[in-house]
Amino acid sequence: MPLRFVLIAISLVAIAFPQTASLPPLKRQPTPEAVVKEHLAAINACDWTRLMAQFPPDVEIFSPDGELAQGRDAVAKMFAGVVKPFAQGGLCGLTFTVVHTQTVGQTLNVKWRADAPFLAKPYEGADAYETRNGLMQAQVTTFRRSDLDAK
Q1: How far is CA 42 from CA 16, 45, 52, 124, in A?
Q2: Torsion sign, CA atoms 128, 130, 134, 135
Q3: Helix (H) or strand (E) holding 9
């Protein structure tokens, strides 16, 4: 294959996945509570770089219906879809607020509420955030975007 076509193919891949091409360095937090606080702040800010700075190479995210994102690259692709405007299938514009927290060891179980001007009513759910060494090791979530009641 001529070099010109290889360079074009590489460019197209970089355009298709600009955020997953270069993962940010890890940024550890001092406590499990700080890990979750940073995670929610990054989600609320729709900040892919801050989100990805939390996830180690062997992270796993368990979603409803048995969906599983394994590894930092898979989670990066998942969150690249999350940090889009709501009209484009993302979650930007939602504000997640903690309603209740229970801590068990390094795991924070969080009941939360999501609000946005474009929602007909708030959406409630729960996540279990498993932390290790100041990072988000695993997450189990009840969140389903399809359950959001948009105006």
Answers
A1: 23, 5, 9, 19
A2: negative
A3: helix 3-16
Global confidence as pTM: 0.84
Secondary structure E strands in 19-149: 60-62, 68-70, 95-104, 107-115, 123-132, 135-141
3-state secondary structure of 109: strand
The neighbouring-strand residues paired with 96 are 114
**Segment 41-73, tens digit of pLDDT:** 999 999 999 999 999 999 999 999 899 999 999
Provide the β-strand partners of residue 101.
Answer: 110
Q: Write the pLDDT tens digit of every residue in 93-116.
A: 999 999 999 999 999 999 999 999
What region does 105 belong to: left with phi over 0, alpha with psi -120 to 50, or beta? left
Domains defined along the chain, listed by start:
3-147 (3.10.450.50)
